[in-house]
Amino acid sequence: MYKFAERVSTWMARICGVALLVSVAMIAIEVVSRKLLGISVVNADEVAGYVLAITVTWGCSLAIVRRAHVRIDILHAQLPRAGQAALDLLALVSLFAFAVFLAWFATGLFGNSWRTGAVSNSQMQIPRWIPHGFWAAGLWIFGAVTAILIAENIRALLRRDLTAAHEIAGVRGAQEETDAEIRDAQERR
């Protein structure tokens, strides 16, 4: 399941990268058209805002899988390996609860936008349910990926495999960060 979560998260991040590139291109077109033609060709600011909100939620899944999220580890580093594993599991469970909480309310916003037929207050009049739906989907997938990590972490802890538990949920040290960057660079070749 872990590899599946990683593959899904990686593809979501790639889609986010493409969406951000398209957003940048739209902004460039907007700037050039305003400068040269004196008119706005596209509403790049509106689309860029939606893209930013969506890519943040869609990118969270890869951040948690790759353990690239920010963690404050002052207490964590002082504990024995078993204590660290317990804190790591607590962090995942807390993150899961937060993701589901946000996803629940994002789904309510999506439903409200759908029912009322709300549209953006710009010339584009984009139906609000479209960005709200992508935003909510990203949060639900983030929650699902976090749930998979919790299950994998618990499985490793039940086997008393603290190394595997650390590789799933632990704080990445400086050497581990360096090794991961080298591995990623070699895979890209």
From TrEMBL:
Report the transmembrane regions from the record. Answer: 12-32, 47-65, 86-109, 129-151
One Pfam family in the UniProt entry = DctQ
GO CC terms of this entry: plasma membrane
What UniProt keywords apply to this chain's record, in alphabetical order? Cell inner membrane, Cell membrane, Membrane, Transmembrane, Transmembrane helix, Transport
Q: From which domain of life does this come?
A: Bacteria
Location in or out of the cell: Cell inner membrane
Q: Please report the stretch or stretches of sequence annotated as the Tripartite ATP-independent periplasmic transporters DctQ component domain.
A: 24-155
| Subunit and interaction comment | The complex comprises the extracytoplasmic solute receptor protein and the two transmembrane proteins.
Q: What does this protein do?
A: Part of the tripartite ATP-independent periplasmic (TRAP) transport system.
Protein family according to the UniProt entry? Belongs to the TRAP transporter small permease family.
What is this protein's record name? TRAP transporter small permease protein
Q: Which organism is it from?
A: Sulfitobacter aestuariivivens
